[in-house]
Amino acid sequence: MPKAKDYLGSDQRRVTDDKAENETITALDAGDIAMLKTYGVGPYDGPIKTAEKDIEERLKRVNELTGIKESDTGLAHPGLWDLAADKQMMGEEQPLQVARCTKIMAGETEEDNKYLIHVRQIAKFVVGLHDKVAPTDIEEGMRVGVDRAKYQIHLPLPPKIDASVTMMQIEDKPDVTYADVGGCKEQIQKLREVVELPLLHPERFVGLGIDPPKGILLYGPPGTG
After folding, report:
1. Cα separation, 111 vs 134, whole angstroms
2. How crowded is residue 129: how many other Cβ atoms within 10 Å of its Cβ?
3. Burial 46-77 (b: 16+ CB within 10 A, else e)
4. Whole-model pTM?
5. What is the pLDDT of residues 181-205, one digit of tens each?
6. 3-state SS of the chain: helix, strand, coil percent to 5?
7. Which of 3, 119, 126, 164 has its CA at 20 to 30 Å from residue 96's CA atom?
8. What is d(CA 179, CA 194) in angstroms, rounded to the nearest whole number?
């Protein structure tokens, strides 16, 4: 039987070596493992980690000396929370009641001033100021926050603003003029006579002895704005 032709050739055919397969594998020692751990590590990685650890220890020491606890920063373990003390502190801070300062009665000095406040649906009281409030912060007609025990003024409040009024306030002044409206020349003329004339020339109505119009009503088919 003729021998089959070798198409791969001796240079491409893998020849097994019994000696190479029987070689023993040597385990890595501690030095080799330490060297492998240094692969991919920059030259300053070790000093940077040492500096970060030193900064963390020094910051912890500074917080201990200044009296800052972990519970003050909210990082303490839940088992270290003092809920009873927190509830007591919240109970000491009573909610304030809204009143209005109707009159300021001057004393010998500003610190001796007395304030007449009106608590809605309760009564009127003559009270003083809390230690945290300065006399210059309170004006007549101002809304103030008072406590429910002695009705002392603890906080000046901003004026009450109706939400419906704020919705109608114009934040950006429009740049639309009468020239931008076309086809309503007669209506624009009537509108200016009724709205602008009483504001710009009120003396004309006084001379004629008539009252200016109090308002106008615009109407039209749907879609006219």
Report:
1. 8
2. 19
3. eeeeeeeeeeeeeeeeeeeeeeeeeeeeeeee
4. 0.34
5. 777 788 888 888 888 888 888 888 7
6. 40, 15, 50
7. 164
8. 18
